[in-house]
TrEMBL record:
Keywords: Aminotransferase, Pyridoxal phosphate, Transferase. Coiled coil: none annotated. GO terms for molecular function: transaminase activity. Residues 58-303 form the Aminotransferase class V domain. It comes from the Bacteria. The keyword Transferase applies. It comes from Labrys neptuniae. Belongs to the class-V pyridoxal-phosphate-dependent aminotransferase family. This is Aminotransferase class V-fold PLP-dependent enzyme. Its cofactor is pyridoxal 5'-phosphate. InterPro entries: Aminotrans_V_dom (IPR000192), Aminotrans_V_PyrdxlP_BS (IPR020578), PyrdxlP-dep_Trfase (IPR015424), PyrdxlP-dep_Trfase_major (IPR015421), PyrdxlP-dep_Trfase_small (IPR015422), SP_NH2Trfase/AEP_transaminase (IPR024169).
Length: 392
């Protein structure tokens, strides 16, 4: 097939050519005397993306799931009560992990297409006078449904109840793409991974922790080894990892962090909002709806588009793949067959998004959805044209 294959799944995302080139390197010695000169800068600059000013950040040769595991096993003990909510495949998997670790999980199940139920959290925290809840979890961006939750609202609920529980946030598909402020929001464990907003291949798990999380690690009862904070603290301090690091990915990370900082985080967030708005305008022009039930839940990194009754969304994804060399995201779990997803995060721009929208539009028509030809892409490109930065 000629031309590029278009990748619009919400992770792994497109890797910029400069990042790819930086990883095309001869192997290097991760115990070289000057290796810490390189690794220390990674920690410092990664902290800036999380907006963590007073804690630490750890880099694991794992995916985001490893960073989840590190957060849980280092700060909690078996049997600890945790407050969680489930509204999509990834919040579901996080609940599943906590249950498998023997935590006493209080799960609030809410409709998929909505997000973290801050009011219910607020009530539970107020009622918990004995402070049995040790940690509160929020999936900042539910990648399966395209829903962003209010982490600051959860912090406000904790503060209003004067509750000392730790706050965990899953930012795998949000950090580095949309506003996330670990310090301001008092997030104790913030998790992310390399393959989304960080514009890298999969293979690095990031865990950014507060001083409170580091203190909790001193008494937490879970066993841990590969994902131990203690070893990672040493890595922070010495610049040498406790085991063989993913040296190529780290070289790629250097360049990806430079790209994020050169563009500026605020500009990155603004770009994601512009791109997402174009996709939302296309969906509206098609006469379709998002899985996100209200505008307040809309994610600027991924849109899950509901297909009409009687249409299988997996067929649309299949058609885009085979007919138009374009990868869109399938529906997962409860929304399998009901939604397809367009990822609009990481290294993407207006014209790339118009390509994704064109492929989706053609595939929708091929699968019998009655959308007007050119309606979605027309709405998106007019939005992009009118909101583009004047450069001449
Ligand atoms: N959390 C969210 C919100 C995700 O989107 C994903 C993966 O897509 C994960 C967690 C799991 O991360 P990983 O696949 O990197 O282990």
């Amino acid at each position: 097939m000629a031309g590029f294959t278009q990748l619009f799944v919400p992770g792994p995302t497109n890797v910029p050519e400069v990042v790819r080139q930086a990883m095309n390197m001869p192997m290097e010695d991760m115990r070289a005397p000057d290796y810490p000169d390189f690794t220390r800068g990674l920690f410092t600059d990664l902290m800036k993306v999380f907006r963590n000013e007073t804690g630490r950040v750890f880099i694991f040769p794992s995916s985001g799931t490893g960073a989840w595991e590190s957060a849980i096993t280092n700060t909690l003990s078996p049997g600890d009560r945790v407050l969680m909510s489930r509204f999509g495949q990834f919040s579901h998997l996080w609940v599943d992990m906590c249950e498998r670790f023997g935590l006493d999980v209080d799960v609030v199940d809410v409709e998929w297409g909505t997000g973290c139920p801050v009011e219910i959290y607020a009530e539970r925290l107020l009622q918990d006078k004995e402070h049995r809840i040790k940690a509160v979890f929020v999936t900042h961006n539910e990648t399966a449904t395209g829903v962003t939750s209010d982490v600051a609202g959860v912090r406000a609920a904790l503060n209003a109840a004067k509750h000392p529980a730790l706050l965990f946030a899953d930012g795998v598909s949000s950090i580095g793409s949309i506003d996330f402020r670990q310090e301001d929001w008092g997030v104790d464990c913030a998790v992310s991974g390399s393959q989304k907003g960080f514009m890298l291949p999969p293979g690095l798990g990031f865990l950014s922790v507060s001083q409170k999380a580091l203190a909790a690690a001193k008494t937490a009862g879970h066993k841990r080894c590969y994902f131990s904070f203690e070893d990672q603290i040493r890595a922070n301090d010495t610049g040498y990892f406790p085991y063989t690091p993913a040296v190529q990915l780290l070289r790629g990370l250097r360049v990806a962090l430079d790209l994020l900082h050169e563009e500026g985080l605020e500009a990155v967030f603004e770009r994601h909002n512009r791109l997402a708005t174009g996709v939302r305008k296309a969906v509206e022009a098609w006469g379709l709806k998002l899985c996100a039930k209200e505008a307040k839940w809309n994610s600027d990194t991924v849109s899950a588009v509901l297909v009409p009754e009687g249409i299988d969304s997996a067929e649309i994804v299949r058609r885009a793949h085979y007919g138009y060399q374009t990868s869109l995201g399938v529906g997962l779990n409860k929304v399998a067959g009901k939604v397809f997803r367009i990822g609009h995060l990481g290294w993407v721009n207006d014209v790339m998004m118009c390509g994704a929208i064109s492929a989706a539009e053609m595939a929708l028509r091929d699968c019998g959805v009655k959308v007007q030809p050119g309606s979605g892409v027309g709405a998106a490109l007019e939005h992009y044209r009118l909101s583009a930065q004047p450069s001449l």
